[in-house]
C-alpha cells in the first residue's frame, strides 16, 4: 500500500470512528508501526486535516461544521424518534447534557451520525442496567448538534419544534 493510500485509510478510519483511535490500532489497521502512523498524522495535519490527539487516541475535530445546542423534552418511548429526527435532517448528535439543580451539569459524549448509530445507542441502553441520563431531569436535556450548514441546523430545529420536542431554555441554563 502506498503512503497516500495508507493516509487515506487512516483519515477515513478516524472520521468514521465513534471513539478515539490509538496509534497502535491505526497501525494494525494499516499494517504498519505506530511510529509510521504518528508520521502520517503529522503529514495529514500539515494538509489541514483537523485531527486532534487525545489521551485515548486520535479524533477528527471538524471545526468547519456549524454547531447548536438544543434543549429538548420527551419520554423514553420517544428517544428513537428524537434521535432519528436529528440525523435524518443531516445532524450529528455530539453529546447529551443535563443540568441538574443539585448535581449540576453532566455531559456524555454520543457522536451519533446516522440511524445505525441511533440503533446501536438504543441497543446499548436496553442491554445496560441503567437508564438514559435524561431520566434524572424528568426528560429535560440538551444535545449539542453539528451540521454542515446553518440551514441544516434550522431544519433540525423546525423538525424538533414540529414534534414538540423543543423546550424553553431557562435563565439559569443560559451558560450550557
Shape: elongated
Radius of gyration: 18 Å
What is the helix tally? 6
- On the 0 to 100 scale, the average pLDDT is 90
**Spatial arrangement of strands, main beta sheet:** 3-6-4-5
Structural class: alpha+beta
Binned strand content: 15-25%
Helix amount? 40-55%
Topology, pairings included?
Elements: H1 3-16, H2 23-30, H3 34-46, E1 51-54, E2 57-60, E3 66-73, H4 79-88, E4 92-100, E5 104-112, H5 115-127, E6 140-147, H6 150-162
Antiparallel strand pairs: 1-2, 3-6, 4-5, 4-6
Helix pairs in contact: 1-3, 2-3, 4-5
Primary descriptors:
single chain; alpha+beta; two-stranded antiparallel ribbon; 6 strands; 40% helix; elongated
Structure description:
With 176 residues, the protein is an alpha+beta fold. 40% of the residues lie in helices and 24% in strands. The chain has helices spanning 3-16, 23-30, 34-46, 79-88, 115-127, 150-162; strands at residues 51-54, 57-60, 66-73, 92-100, 104-112, 140-147. β1 and β2 form a beta hairpin. α4 packs antiparallel against α5. It is elongated.
